Amino acid sequence: MRPSQPRITPLKPNEWSEEQHDLLKPVIEGKGLARGVLNVFSTLVRHPKLYKRWSVFATHVLFKSSISPRAREILILRAAHNCGSAYEWGQHVSYAKEVTDLTDSEIASIKSPTIATHWREQDALLLAMADELHTDCCIGNDTWSALTRQFSEAQIMDAIFTVGNYTQLAMALNSFGVQLEDNHDQ
């Protein structure tokens, strides 16, 4: 059962050290998700050394990846769903609506245990890949072969690391009891 209250509470701005403030500066200045300092950041920054290194990788995955925003958000939402992360699901439903053409129906069907026939071929392949990584920690031969026909090597690598980053993040947020901010989809 997921904690219903934070086990590690997010820091309030008046609790930030100078180092934590500096680490959160890109988020404060709107270079991140432009939603202020979310609970994910104000919780993880409690461990500044970890936050500093994680944020570089997370920035690549979210903003500098070679995959499209649509592909990225499909992968993140499927990973969030597969890991039971209400926090990541809620954040990325909102974000996916802002930065992609994903419809409400498509977003809802990401939660389906089967891959619906309405998905574009590339999208269905990404969902299958995310599921295989979740269940087997490896992409099967058939899916790998199909991926190589649709995506470049760098895109496949970025897709795998997208699922991996958000799976790892879901594990942490679920365990820490990070709660979703108000006004997000669940």
Number of strands: 0
- What is the string of SSEs from the N terminus onward? HHHHHHHHH
CA distance, first residue to last residue: 17 Å
Write down the overall mean pLDDT: 92
Percentage of helical residues?
A: 55-70%
Question: Could you state the CATH homologous superfamily of the largest domain?
Answer: AhpD-like
Number of domains: 2
Quick overview:
It contains 9 helices and no strands. The protein has helices at 18-28, 39-44, 48-64, 69-82, 86-99, 104-109, 121-136, 141-150, 153-176.
Overview of this protein structure:
Helix 3 (48-64) crosses helix 9 (153-176), helix 7 (121-136) packs antiparallel against helix 8 and helix 7 (121-136) packs across helix 9. This protein has 9 helices and no strands. By secondary structure, the protein is mainly alpha-helical. The chain has 2 domains: 13-64, no CATH class; 69-176, AhpD-like. The chain is globular.
Secondary-structure map:
Elements: H1 18-28, H2 39-44, H3 48-64, H4 69-82, H5 86-99, H6 104-109, H7 121-136, H8 141-150, H9 153-176
Helix pairs in contact: 3-9, 4-5, 4-7, 4-9, 7-8, 7-9
Key descriptive features of the protein:
single chain; 186 residues; mainly alpha; AhpD-like; 2 domains; 9 helices; 63% helix; 0% strand; globular
